Amino acid sequence: MIAKPLDILTGINRASEPSSGSVILVGDLYGAMPDTHTTFLGREPVDQTWKVAFDRLITLSTTKRPHGPGFQPYVDELTREVGTLVDEIQPSAIHAQYLGFALSLAFARTAGSIPIIAIAHGPDVMVAQRSALQREAMNEVAAASAAIVAPTAALADRIDRLTGHRYTDRLNVIPWGIRLSDVRVRDRQTAGAGPLSLVHAGRLDDNKSTITAVEALALTDQPHHLTVIGEGPLRQQLERRAIELGLRGRVRFDPFLPRAELWRRLSDYDAFVFTTKGLEAFGLVLIEAQAHGLPVAYSALPGAKEILGSTGIPYTPGDPRTLAVALDDMGRDFHGREALAKSAIDNARRHDIATTGRRLYELTLHVTQGDCRPGAGSYVCGPMWPGVGGDSVGGYDGERTGRRAAQS
User: Fold this and answer.
1) Alpha carbon separation from 14 to 35, 57, 61, 160, 205 (Å, rounded)
2) Is 356 in a helix, a strand, or coil?
3) Spatial CA neighbour of 41 closest among 56, 62, 28
4) Architecture of the domain spanning 6-173
5) Domain boundaries in the chain?
């Protein structure tokens, strides 16, 4: 007898197009998840090429409103719309993307006996750290969820603290991945020791801290060159700062690129620079760079260290001086850079989206079988927080260790 596919209802309350890391991830994830039928709730406009990742895509009609006086009435209206859809679809499980945002609240208030798996993406946790109202929303969704998924133990720990350690047994770490089957590593002509051709890609905002890379270039002993790919509110400020530092000929700014084009260009560079200084959920761009054979200099955030371990060169987050030293060391040590390129590819191979999809499917299967719902006692629904430490690559060995997080 052939088992019936799991019917999953999910969604992201924004334009249904690959415009951010989270939306791109979700498109990859449900396209790679086995034995499922997925309905996605999104908004216009809809990118038709991205839409094919789902069996059905429904656009929400409730007018979206930000936090403020009209936010709660908006959530109430969205909840009514989502409730009608939940009644119509009757999914096996709901995957609530973003822990505590409006659509997740609507799912939490309308699911009834349908189990929810809440999936944290990072921005939801960042907002909850700053806002009491958002923490309240996060806790409401966590309470309604049978399981909570985070891509790193560092983010899981942050969620655990923000929810007062009340839902520790529902927290599961499932690392994210990319479509490794689409990666094509080109042979690169390596110039040997000397100045590097560096690349940085991401949103140009305060937390991504691209300014760290720009200012580091003014402090290096070698005349490295940096290409910055992306858009954001700090674009003009960064361009002005590069000119002030006399880097007009060494820093280039290119606009946001679709992923396929970014991937085609990555192999043109000698190394990748990752500069986020605050919370980072996972940093998929790190894996994208490594998959294309690029050594990585990265800010030593807990999540990034967990993902990369010794396969990259860490520096102090937000500190251009330590980044400058790391870049010069990398430029001088040709053989070390070649070794980093090899270990980068090996590490990236551990982060295939097919593995992410399989693990989330297995957790969903546990949930739908009734093993782990709110009130089901102390049963741990899936893989708890894997050990992190030492020089292990990311500290993730692919096994479900079941280790409970420290309650501190």
Assistant:
1) 26, 13, 11, 27, 20
2) helix
3) 56
4) 3-Layer(aba) Sandwich (3.40)
5) 6-173, 184-348
101-140 burial, b for 16+ CB within 10 Å, e for fewer?
A: bbbbbbbbbbbeebbbbbbbbbbbbbbbeeeeebbebbbe
What is the tens place of the pLDDT at every residue in 111-169? 999 999 999 999 999 999 999 999 999 999 999 999 999 999 999 999 999 999 999 99
Q: Looking at this protein, which amino acid is placed at residue 115?
A: P
pLDDT in tens, 317-369: 999 999 999 999 999 999 999 999 999 999 999 999 999 999 999 999 999 98
Query: In the sheet where 296-299 sits, what is the strand order?
Result: 251-254, 225-229, 197-201, 271-274, 296-299, 313-315
Note the residue count of the chain: 408
* pTM to 2 decimal places: 0.88
Tell which wins on pLDDT, 190 or 281: 281
CATH class (in words) of the domain with range 184-348: alpha beta
